[in-house]
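Give me the 3D structure for Stage 0 sporulation protein A homolog.
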Amino acid sequence: MRIYIVEDDSNVIKYLSHIIVDCDLGEVVGIAQNGAAAYDEILMLKPDLVLVDLLMPGKDGITLVQDIKKVNSRVQFVMISQVSSKEMIGRAYQSGVEYYISKPVNAIETQSVIKKVKEKISIYNTLNQIQSIFSSGTEPAAETPRDSREDEIRRIFQKIGIVGEVGSQDIQRVVLYLLDSGKGMADFTVKEICGKFTDQTKSMEQRIRRTATVGMTNLAHMGIEDYMNETLNELGNGLYSYEQIKIEMDYIRGKTKKRGKVNLRKFIDGMVSFCKVNK
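Predicted structure for Stage 0 sporulation protein A homolog (279 residues):
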């Protein structure tokens, strides 16, 4: 990951650079000690992540983030500051900052935040590749669904990035069963529906829950990048709830320790409904 540092304290720049290099978090591609000097370089170098001080002479951190986001929305920003004002921190998040690191800079916190950004970028790139492959009509023959219902199930899995998850096969079996039987989750508990396929109902339920949670996390990442994201708007409230996705977005941003929750019965019924509508 390519990282750019904007900070008016040279000692902080050195410390952040050491953390990045020593912990193998990425490559420092540039530094600046004020926002005005950083603007042109960031647009030219196109780093994946910018660590930016909130309070700087001339162009402050929030203004820099806003100006860069207008031109390149893909750049991720982490704000660094000793300011504790909730209003100021709120403005930083509204400007497009993903996470916040408090001064004095702590190595463990910095590692954790940068790793989260790295994970988000990786997920975003993977989802883009998947969408690119299937939008171009180059779906591998081995992945060709057997009928229109499986086609729709796979389309949803691809959209929320859970095709390769272990529990995706369990979800597909449950959804197909409900479609064939003409029933819904109002007729079963999650344990009962899992019992239709295995004696190890708890393990199957855990696989389904983990997989559904991955899907919600992926949607939350999309929402952070673009709250009007087409996939989020199409599937978000049908499979989950916008409220829980918003909580997950806040968790990813580091604004809360609480994570979004998945209602499995709603998720499964949502899958069934989408298959009926688009069959």
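The two ends are 42 Å apart (CA to CA). Let me know if you want a second pass.
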